Amino acid sequence: MSQNTQGNHSDKNVGHDNAGSEQLRPLFSYPRYWAECFGTAPYLPTTRAEMDALGWDSCDIIIVTADAYVDHPSFGMAVIGRMLEAQGFRVGIIAQPAWDSAEPFKILGEPNLFFGVTGGNMDSLINRYTADLRIRTDDAYTPHGEAGKRPDRSVIVYSQRCREAYYDTPIVIGGIEASLRRIAQYDYWSDKVRKSVLIDSNADILLYGNAERAIVELAHEIAAGKNISELTTIRGTAFVRDQLPEGWTEIDSTRIDWPSRIDALPNPYDMKDPEGQSCASDSAPEADSANPVRIIPMPLQRKHALDHTSTYIRLPSYNKVRNDPALYAHASRVLHQESNPHNAHVLVQKHDTKEVWVNPPPIPLTTEEMDGVFDLPYQRRPHPSYGNAKIPAYDMIKTSVNIMRGCFGGCTFCSITEHEGRIIQSRSEESVLREIEKIRDQVPGFTGTISDLGGPTANMYRLNCKSEQIQKNCRRLSCVYPTICQHLETDHRHTTQLYRKARAIPGIKRVAIASGLRYDLALRDPEYVEELVTHHVGGYLKIAPEHSEENTLSKMMKPSISSYDEFKEMFDRFSKKAGKVQYLIPYFIAAHPGTENEDMLNLGLWLKKNRFKPDQVQTFYPSPMALATAMYHSGKNPLKKVTYKSEKVSIVRQIEQRRIQKAFLRYHDEKNWPLLRQALRDMGRADMIGDGPHQLVPAEKAERRVRPVKAKAGKPAARKPRRR
C-alpha cells in the first residue's frame, strides 16, 4: 500500500488535550486481540522454526530492526514488541537483515497487519560515521561489535525492501532515525536538506517519539479492519496526503518578512489572548469553494479566535527550506515551539505535490503506564541465537535501570528532547525496585553492582511543572534556561529516597549513577548532592558543562560556567565530609555553532588552570532536527526571531578548522602542539606559546634553547642557554 493513499478526510478531531476534545485511553485498556491465546513467547521469534515451536502459522506484526535483538527494556524493538504482545498480537523480529535483496525480509512470511521498521536505538549514520565523517570501526549494537551490519539510512533501505517483499502490506516506520526526519531536515552527511523520510521510504505512516500509545492504537485499528489510510488522527504520527481536509484553518508560516513579528510569544504561561482585541483590517480571508482552507498569516494568529482542533500551521515547503537557509531556521524554530503535546498544532509541509501532515506529539505516559511497559516479561538478555557473542551496548546497560523518560533541559545540540519530549515521565518507586531485583536474580554473573539509576538525565526523576494548567499552556524551549523556571519542581527528595531504598535491597552492594547530571538543578537540593557524593560516586562523576564561554553557552542553552564552579565546591565539600577523594570529569564540545577560536583558546586556558587533561572530547555533530543543526546549516539563531537581517552565528564547517578547535580541548597532547602553535599565530595570539603558567602550549624546541635576558641601560640584551 502506497503512502500516497491518504485521502481528503475531514479530520477535525485530532485530539488536543487543551481543547477538551480528547478522551485519553489507558495503554492497557484495549480488549486483547484473539491471538492472545498463544500466550507469551520466551523470545519474540526470529525464524520460522521458532514460530512453529510457538504454534504460529503467521505473525500479525513483524518488526525489522537495525540492531541485534536484545530482549531488554532499553532496546526499542523489545519494548514495542513486548507491548504489542501484551495486546494479544503475534510479533516477530527480523534483526539486522542483509539488504541486497528482499529475500531476508520474507523469512517470517507476510505479516497479517503491518511491518514495523526502525533504524534501532541509534541513528544509522551517526552509528557509522564520526563527527569528522570518518568511518567507525565498530558497532556497539551488533554481536562482537562488528561494523557494517546495517545500511546507511536504514529506515529507507529496510522500508523499500519490505515494499519489494510484500507490496500491499502496510509499512510503519519509527524509532529515533525516523522520528528526527519527520519533516524536511538538514543532512550533515550529504550537506543538503533532504525530504521527509516518509517520502524517501515510501512508508505509509511514521510514529515519532516514544510510540507506545500510537503503535497500540494503530495495531488495534488495523486489526479491526480499518485501512491504514483512514488513521489520520493518531497523536505522534506523520503521513503523506494528496489533498488537505476541508474545514480547517491554516496559520501561514511560509514567510519571515512579515511586517509584524512573525512568532513573537507573549508570557509563555499567559492563558489569555495577549492582544485582547481583533482588528478588522487584519482579518483573514474566509474559506471559499476554490480554497477550502481559511488562511491566517502567523503574525495575526492571536487576533483570531481559532478552533485548536481544526487549525494547522503551514511550514515553508521542502523546496523553500532547501533553497533558503533562513527559512530553514525559521521552520526549525516553529517546529520546536510546537512541541508541547498539550498546545501543539498540526504541522503541514509541502513536498512537491504532496503534503506531509504531522499530528501533535503523543500525550506522555502516566506512571502506571510506564510501570506496565517496564514490567513486561523481558528476558533481559540477547536472543539465544547469538550464543556467547558480546554485544557491547547490552554489556553497558545490562545492570542499569531506566527510571524516567524525557528532558526539559532543551540543549540545542541534543536530540533527546526532540524525540522523548520535555515532560518527564517517571516510573513508580516500586517498579524500579522490582527491576533491580530482577537484575539481581536474572542477569548471569551479577556482582551486586547496579551500574546506573537514571535515563536521559540522572536527576529529573519526578520533577515537573508545579501547575498542570501552566504546563499545558507553556511554550518555553527549556525549563532551566536562561534560568530555572519558578514553576518547576526542583525538590530531589523522590530521587534521594529511591537511592536509599535501592541500596537497601538484599544482594545489592553498590548503586552507581552514570547518567549525566544536570548540576545547575542539583544545586537547588544540597541533600541530594550529599547523598549522591557520599554513596553513588565511585571516585569520578561525569558532568557536562560543555564550554566555559558565554558566547557559546548561549547557543547551547547551557548554564554559565559559574554554576559548575558552585557545584564543584559543593561536590568537594561533601566528598571531604564523607572521607573520600573524588573527582569531577567534565565533558566539553568543540566547534559548536557560535564558537570562535578565541572561545576555544579561553576554554583551553580554563582547562589548564583547573588541571584538566581530557582524554575523550567531542566535536559538535549536527544531528537531524536539532536547533544547533539549524544554526550550523543556516548561520541563523532560531532561539530568537529569524529574519534575513537577524543575528548571524559563526560556524566552523571545514574539517581542518573543526580539528583545530578540538585540539584546544587536548592542549596537553604534544601531537596537537604544532597545529595549535600555527592556529595561535594565525589568531595573533603567539603570546600563548611558551612555558609560562598562563600560556597554553610550549614553544618549539629550537625556540626554547635560549631566552632573552633583560638588558642593562644602553646595552643590547644578551642571550644565554636555558637551564634544563
Layout: helices, strands, pairs:
Blueprint: H1 48-54, E1 61-65, E2 70-71, H2 76-86, E3 91-95, E4 114-118, H3 124-128, H4 154-165, E5 171-174, H5 176-179, E6 185-187, E7 192-194, H6 197-201, E8 205-207, H7 212-223, E9 237-241, E10 249-252, E11 294-297, E12 311-314, H8 318-323, H9 325-337, E13 346-351, E14 354-358, H10 367-374, E15 381-382, H11 392-397, E16 400-402, E17 404-405, H12 416-420, E18 425-426, H13 429-442, E19 449-450, E20 452-454, H14 468-473, H15 493-503, E21 510-511, H16 519-522, H17 526-535, E22 540-546, H18 550-556, H19 561-577, E23 583-590, H20 597-609, E24 618-619, H21 627-634, H22 655-665, H23 673-682, H24 701-704, E25 706-708, E26 719-721
Parallel strand pairs: 1-3, 1-4, 4-5, 5-8, 10-11, 10-12, 12-13, 16-20, 19-21, 22-23, 23-24
Antiparallel strand pairs: 2-15, 6-7, 8-9, 9-14, 13-14, 17-18, 25-26
Helix pairs in contact: 2-7, 9-21, 13-15, 15-17, 17-19, 20-22
